[in-house]
Amino acid sequence: MYVLRRWWERYGTLTFLVALSVGAAFAFKQTDGAILFELYQRLSRPFQGDPSRQNELVNAHVTELQHRLVEVERENQRLKDLLSYKTQSTGEPIFAPVVGRSSDRWWQHAILGRGRQDGIRESYVVMASGGLVGRVISVTENTSRILLVSDASSRVGVTVSRSRAMGVLRGKGSNHAVMEFFEKLPDVREGDAIATSTYSPRFPSKVPLGTVVSVNLNASPAPQAEIELSVPLGSLEWVAIYPNPSKPLPDESAEPIQGDSDAETNLME
Same domain, yes or no, for 134 and 224? Predict the structure, then answer.
């Protein structure tokens, strides 16, 4: 017993450390280091940030990237639609982004991010996917202001594509407009397509404008139809700009409105 105690006093600590090392190595091998990793996590946790907070930041960043991707895809589709519409129009357009709109004049004017140095001039025609948007009314070196067809002061000579009944379209400050007919009994019905008239000196003919949603033949002073505009002017972002078509009136003469040729010019843009 005395010899064993003397041996333990001399080699006991070393024996314990060797046994502990062998046990730890065996446990490490059996668990593929999981115990050591868990121990490291527990010891280093006080020095790390809040994991839940980190996860929130990572998730927020992922969500932001997803939203950016969706926005880029939508922008790409809008540009593809505009390029597709361009192939249906004559001439080479100038593409421009909508960079400014006033909340109190949302349906009246819009500011474009292209100007005189890009070749844009006053009276140029503005279109987008869906049809006519309006016309340029003022230009600076880098921007242009357009008068939208939805403005109450806007006047556009239009025709019913099916029956060729003609009239004047004026804005209502929304995505709807009013068409006033020249005839007392026009051939028009709900669902008819409306396009610019061949008698419109400020716009090319046959440009889509909208669809008839209701008809009032008893309106005064002339029969009217409510038109839903085909271009989503409320969410306009890109447009195509074309030079003003200097076209002559058709050979077929039209009866002047109220016997006054100037009146016809004033009513039809």
Answer: yes
pTM > 0.85: no
Query: How many CB atoms are located within 10 Å of the residue 158 CB?
Result: 31
Q: Across the strands, what pairs with 168?
A: 157, 180
Please give the C-alpha separations between residue 40 and each of 17, 29, 36, 126, 136, in angstroms, as whole numbers: 21, 17, 6, 66, 69
- How many structural domains is the chain composed of? 2
Is residue 32 a part of any domain in this protein?
Answer: yes
State the Cα angle at 149 between 147 and 152, rounded to 5°: 85
Helices marked H in the chain — which ranges? 2-31, 34-44, 51-86, 261-267
Asked if 221 and 203 count as a contact pair (C-beta separation under 8 A), the reply is no
In angstroms, how far is the first alpha carbon of the chain from the final one?
121
Per-residue pLDDT tens digits for 15-59: 766 676 766 666 555 555 555 556 665 666 555 555 565 566 666
